[in-house]
Amino acid sequence: MSKTLISSFPQKLIAWHQVDGREGLPWQGVKDPYAVWVSEIMLQQTQVATVLERYPRFMKRFPTVKKLAAAPVDDVLAEWAGLGYYSRARNLHACSIEVMERFLGKFPGDPLLLEQLKGIGRSTAGAIAAFAFQERAPILDANVKRILARLFGVEGALQEKAVNDLLWSLAEQLLPKHRDDMPVYTQALMDFGATWCTSRKPVCISGTRKCPFEKQCQANLSDQVLQLPRKTPKAKSPEFDCDMMVLQRGNAVLLQKRPTKAIWGGLWSLPESPWRTGGLNEVASLQMTSKALLALTLPEENHLTIGRHCKTLIQGERIKHVFTHRRLWMQIWHVSVNQALEFSSENLRWVSLDQLGKYGLPQPIKLLLQGLSLAHGDD
DNA sequence: AATGCGGGGCG
DNA sequence: CGCCCAGCATT
């Protein structure tokens, strides 16, 4: 490992940033630890373009850690809806309460303390400590992993612990000497990875710009830039089928709160059947009755009233939704019932179509019900 | 070390 | 369609 590269890296990167860094992102230059924390959590595995719209909205709704801690977790989830990885929202809320109680509303600057908080791992702790407290703490997100793997010609797959340890060690060694440089240095690392040393079209390959590290970058010197960092291939994601029910009573639909641990955890969705593997949609091939459908999708104690209240049953669209690790086909069924149908469960709630915005809905369900809402408005 | 957890953008 | 992304928690 080149000693000169390590000692010269921070200043060269900061110099690069002064000319070619990103500007105008709403969380840049922010010093308030709360605002930094929210931005870091929201940006986990989430594109800048997406966060650009959602971050100011979140900050307007929850301007301080105190306000966030005082809000019901359901409100936080509703605000988070559409961003994905909903454990981030649940952890955000839990973390805000812990900061209020354990740290009297002030985020700690020590990365080791930050890392004890829910939803904050080593990299996010480093980012908060660097941006908000000028602590000499490293980050290691996908950008930094890519930069370092190329710069130092790290051959092993990112999933290997030894490789991860090596990258953390490099990230530590590369830190600027002076803590005052930490915010700009950390931002520069992210900007450089996101805009120049990109995964598919790094500037050294596209030839659009001249990389400041081209003479030292091991991957560039050995023509391995697009091969690094290495990743072990992922298995193809399995496919599932399920039935979902839009149970409509006048202007309201029945929403069901999802269990915390599951996918879309804590969000409000439609009653749904268990997921089935294996292509053929057996239920759709049945002569579907409202009773059979409700038996599939609702808890047992709610079945008895069904037949009496059902007015119509219509087979709706079949929606495909792609997750990172699963593909899901949702067969929609529209069931219309008369006004008398009630449910007693905490997790079942009639919600009028114009109130849907107050609820955190999975993105495909939100889109589906928006279409319904529109059609209904046209009547 | 492997898996679960969303959603959007890009080629 | 497959790959990628300002990761973390759990097992």
UniProtKB/TrEMBL annotation:
Binds 1 [4Fe-4S] cluster. InterPro entries: A/G_AdeGlyc_MutY (IPR005760), DNA_glycosylase (IPR011257), HhH-GPD_domain (IPR003265), HhH_base_excis_C (IPR023170), MIG/MutY (IPR044298), MutY_C (IPR029119), NUDIX_hydrolase-like_dom_sf (IPR015797). SUPFAM superfamilies: DNA-glycosylase, Nudix. Residues 42-195 form the HhH-GPD domain. Pfam families: HhH-GPD (PF00730), NUDIX_4 (PF14815). One of its GO terms (molecular function) is 8-oxo-7,8-dihydroguanine DNA N-glycosylase activity. The keyword Membrane does not apply. It is an enzyme of class 3 (hydrolase). It catalyses: Hydrolyzes free adenine bases from 7,8-dihydro-8-oxoguanine:adenine mismatched double-stranded DNA, leaving an apurinic site. Its cofactor is [4Fe-4S] cluster. One of its GO terms (biological process) is mismatch repair. Gene3D superfamilies: Helix-hairpin-Helix base-excision DNA repair enzymes (C-terminal), Hypothetical protein, domain 2, Nucleoside Triphosphate Pyrophosphohydrolase. The keyword Cell wall biogenesis/degradation does not apply. Its EC number is 3.2.2.31. Keywords: 4Fe-4S, DNA damage, DNA repair, Glycosidase, Hydrolase, Iron, Iron-sulfur, Metal-binding. Adenine glycosylase active on G-A mispairs. MutY also corrects error-prone DNA synthesis past GO lesions which are due to the oxidatively damaged form of guanine: 7,8-dihydro-8-oxoguanine (8-oxo-dGTP). Belongs to the Nth/MutY family. This is Adenine DNA glycosylase. It comes from Polynucleobacter brandtiae.
